[in-house]
Design brief:
disordered N terminus, single chain, mainly alpha
């Protein structure tokens, strides 16, 4: 009975409602990072801007390569973009004392997206349509996935601390909350995997369509 009260009772909606405070913190951290990233990109000098343009051009060429090339890059990205973020947040939540670093990781992710968005939007040859094609599709899954992973880990840390302090507001044992957090982390991992697949196979098609010469 306690497992039902602290786990997935009410389905996904119930799971998220019980973690609303952690979700708000996660969204705020991502948003703060995004804003800081856009502001940081605006402060680059001409030399830094030129170096970054070369890196973006190389990344774009890799994205538009043959599917076999993109599939080879996908294998490495599975570790860097899916396994590492989810595992890092889960482990930081387990340590309790490292839980605040979860928000820092989210800030860095938002920072990267904001920086890239500002760079692309500032390119006269690109424009908002190219930025939307490049950044929009996979981040529709990636940002909620990161927020879910963070919220699951933060909620576990708060619940475990409540159990240690014998708080009456905390229901269920550590095992129940750990199971729920692990389930949330697994769901977040699936969302990040979906985002990676979209970025690998769908985004290049959209970017190529936007960049194709007019009639």
């Amino acid at each position: 009975m306690r497992a039902a009260k602290t786990g997935w009772r009410g389905g996904i909606g119930g799971y998220l409602r019980r973690r609303w405070a952690a979700l708000i913190l996660a969204v705020l951290a991502l948003t703060a990072g995004f804003v800081a990233g856009r502001q940081g990109a605006g402060r680059l000098d001409a030399a830094e801007w030129a170096d970054l343009a070369v890196q973006v051009e190389l990344s774009l060429q890799t994205m538009l390569e043959e599917p076999s090339v993109r599939a080879a890059a996908l294998r490495g990205a599975l570790i860097d973009d899916v396994a590492k973020p989810v595992a890092s947040m889960w482990l930081l939540g387990l340590t309790l004392i490292g839980a605040p670093l979860i928000l820092y990781l989210l800030f860095l992710n938002g920072l990267a997206v904001g920086f890239t968005a500002e760079f692309v939007l500032s390119d006269p040859s690109a424009g908002p349509l190219w930025a939307a094609a490049l950044l929009g599709p996979h981040n529709v899954l990636a940002m909620p996935g990161l927020a879910l992973a963070a919220a699951s880990a933060l909620h576990f840390a708060a619940a475990a601390l409540g159990i240690l302090l014998r708080s009456r507001r905390t229901r269920g044992g550590v095992g129940v909350h750990l199971l729920a957090a692990s389930g949330g982390s697994a769901a977040a991992g699936l969302m990040l995997l979906g985002a990676l697949l979209v970025e690998t196979y769908v985004t290049p098609l959209l970017v190529a369509f936007v960049l194709r010469p007019g009639p």
